[in-house]
């Protein structure tokens, strides 16, 4: 399936604080009352294991393993009857939960509003426990209906029957957004401390994005279902059934926003979340707690080992290297790999999604690379030399790139910008393709936008994955972005944009994917 054009970023995310009389919370409650689709997500402070030895009295007490994490941020992306979107980031530490409980509970169970989420059952359990702890018994949430899990939506868009058992392995939301929407969803702030205040602008934007893009994934699903049902021989009967269901909703006081096909989505594809008593209680046994910590995607353990770079790198000529820096970025910092490629550095990623430490080490030994990671546990391997691994300390990709350039004293020249394939780390052909050659090379693989047909464009093809690139808006934006990063760290001179052929060979490797239009 070809990636769709990226939707606009949620720049209008609204931070909600204050009580019911505050403008922010009042606006949220009005939007929830008028919403016809609402996407949810939640954030909480990462859980850490208790220390093995007792700490001094001044140290904060470790979290109680018999309690579920406290949700501190709730994100809601609302779509109203007019199709407009609003995104709210609710600071649950600054909003009286008593003012929010009744509207939320009514929304969760309102038949005429479709609720969207990504593996939302765990979030709901934590949210329910948070309200119960603050307001007392019977103040939780145990039901969400109708509900559509974006995990199931993704499998449907990939050709699986939602009525049958779906594959157990599911991609992350970031991977799904990149594949379906061609959106790079930054996850560096996922493990930040969501209990600290004030929330940073980066945290607010990150939180808003998680809920916001669920609406656009639903749009792809809605479009596919609509097309299939219109082409179905039973479409007429289906429309009659949907109309009947819409009448039932209207008569019960629940206005229906959806057209016939969208109503069909509720009746045919939606599900519900029902929490049992066991879902709202933490697993207190040591073994179960360990399993929970390891499976909680929003909780990462932190370490404080000495991870300063010792050197020299394996590519250093003094130790027999070829002088060309080469890195391997583990799965925790795959975004850094793309940034390194954009400035012309050889940055590979593991061949499988869940590599064993031994596999990572074998790869760096074989290829003469340095392993870049944020996993401090890898540093503990006794058979790993100090010049073969570096623990990246920064959270944001731009900061990580600057850190690597500075740590390894890398020299980034302007002719290396955009000189590698950002998709696979491959190199480019030496001679550019004409438009006709690019169209032929892209058949069955990539779509060349028609808006390029009347331009005198040159295309560059990756020799490994055959991805096509060209100079366009995204190319120039990317060059300016990485020029800024490299100016700070490498004192790089400002790049000159030219159109003559000799200069085109100097900047021939382009970062604009044809799939992004």
From TrEMBL:
Could you give a single Gene Ontology term from the biological process aspect?
Answer: nucleobase-containing compound metabolic process
Which UniProt keyword terms apply here? Exonuclease, Hydrolase, Nuclease
Q: Name one GO molecular function term.
A: 3'-5' exonuclease activity
Is Nuclease set as a keyword in this record?
yes
Output the CDD domains linked to this UniProt entry.
Answer: mut-7_like_exo
Q: Where is the 3'-5' exonuclease domain?
A: 13-226
Give the residue ranges for region: Disordered.
48-67
Task: Output this protein's name.
Answer: 3'-5' exonuclease domain-containing protein
What organism, scientifically named, is this protein from?
Answer: Triticum turgidum subsp. durum (Durum wheat)
